[in-house]
Amino acid sequence: MINSKNPRTLAAEIITEALHDGQPLMATVRKKAKTMSSQDASFLKELVNGILRHKLYLEGIVDAFVEKPFKAKNIKVKYAIMAGLYQLAFLNTPHHAAVNETVKAVGELGFDTLKGLTNAVMHGYLRKKGELEQQLNKSYETRYSFPQWLITDIKAAYGKSLGTVLENLNRHPPLTVRVNTAKCPIDEYIKLLSDNGLTGTPVPKVPCALVITPPVNTEKLPLFDSGAVFIQDAAAQQAAIFLDPQPGDIILDACAAPGGKTTHILELCPDVKDLVAMDLDEGRLMRVRENLQRLRLKAKVVSADASSEDHSWSPYSAYDRILLDAPCSATGVIRRHPDIKWLRTPDEIKSIVKLQRQILENMWQMLKPGGIMLYATCSIEPEENTLQIKNFLSEHSDAELIPLTAEETAENPGLQILPGLDDMDGFFYAKMKKNC
């Protein structure tokens, strides 16, 4: 049965559940979108992501017209109003439609007494739009809607690139796929896309990556069911390329879920001796198994804690190559998960850095002498990336940096991909060899 609930109503409920009740954002969106028409489901996702991308900007508008802050019992109303304001400020929705539907959504949430307030805020914004825009664009915090601590971190790390980084993290992410060229050469797949009214644009230096326009659902991607394509950002696709698997290797993909990098390793080198895909979350490992099955690939999938010194889960005592896609703040993929802005804290990042180091130390023990480790994160925080590897190298005489760029040194190791470069997510890679 199609859900006839106003998407603005659902958006307010979803954001409340994500920011105040600890519910996973995208899982909640998918759950509620299942019973909606495809058009309404797409609109719901647009509203949820848009409100979270521009949260402080939209709250600034609300605060200009509402004297008393919303309480926990009616916080959904605030998010419903922000959904309407997002339509007016960023989607150019016809004024009457945005106002009327937002007022209707507030009633649907059970707050008929606040319909008048909702109407007043919406019309107030339309009257003072220019003035409010000028005021809210004065500070980075409201202009780009980022918490001040994260702005400070990014400025300290990237200086004059601050505005560009923030802007790119707020952009809509592209639909990027990885093409298994053994099943379909890139040129042929680009032609298949064209035959289906789609455009595939190659990504520089990532030979199997194509950005698809316009974005479509997986069922509209040619050869998706046959396993010839996999949805994966071009930055993430570089993990398997940098790892450079070789025939006969025994490989560990640590923290492997949902399996994008696992499957890519097997596509690049079908003649590896074995690949073990390990992750702590048994639920997420189901995705690894599903992806392996769809792409018709085989690996050993095990549930284990990468930070534990108990290695009884491992079918091998040591590995030729280890891909450590470490737990991280995910600040490099905020454009795909805008709730990260509001859920991360400085203290949490400190805890993440500590956990990363524990896992790094533990996985290093499982690497054969002469073996290769590729450390990866989808973060742009130096503490999780360059500084993490710099400290590790300084404390391990058997660790040798294998530069991925000409600029790398032991004092400044790794490749940091900033969000937006060639339309990629933010990622970090560092490659090391274990000497005898």
Molecular structure report:
This protein has helices spanning 7-20, 25-33, 38-53, 55-65, 75-91, 95-108, 115-136, 140-143, 148-158, 162-170, 186-195, 234-243, 260-268, 282-294, 340-343, 346-365, 386-395; strands at residues 175-179, 199-203, 206-213, 229-231, 250-254, 274-279, 300-303, 319-325, 367-377, 399-401, 415-417, 427-434. The longest helix has 22 residues, at 115-136. With 436 residues, the chain is an alpha/beta fold. The chain is globular. It folds into three domains: 7-143, N-utilizing Substance Protein B Homolog, Chain A (Orthogonal Bundle); 175-231, 2-Layer Sandwich (Alpha-Beta Plaits), CATH 3.30.70; 234-434, Vaccinia Virus protein VP39 (Rossmann fold, 3-Layer(aba) Sandwich), CATH 3.40.50. The model has no long low-confidence stretch (mean pLDDT 95).
Write the layout of secondary structure elements.
Elements: H1 7-20, H2 25-33, H3 38-53, H4 55-65, H5 75-91, H6 95-108, H7 115-136, H8 140-143, H9 148-158, H10 162-170, E1 175-179, H11 186-195, E2 199-203, E3 206-213, E4 229-231, H12 234-243, E5 250-254, H13 260-268, E6 274-279, H14 282-294, E7 300-303, E8 319-325, H15 340-343, H16 346-365, E9 367-377, H17 386-395, E10 399-401, E11 415-417, E12 427-434
Parallel strand pairs: 5-6, 5-8, 6-7, 8-9
Antiparallel strand pairs: 1-3, 1-4, 2-3, 9-12, 10-12, 11-12
Descriptive labels:
436 residues; alpha/beta; N-utilizing Substance Protein B Homolog, Chain A; Alpha-Beta Plaits; Rossmann fold; 3 domains; eight-stranded mixed β-sheet; four-stranded antiparallel β-sheet; 12 strands; 47% helix; 16% strand; globular
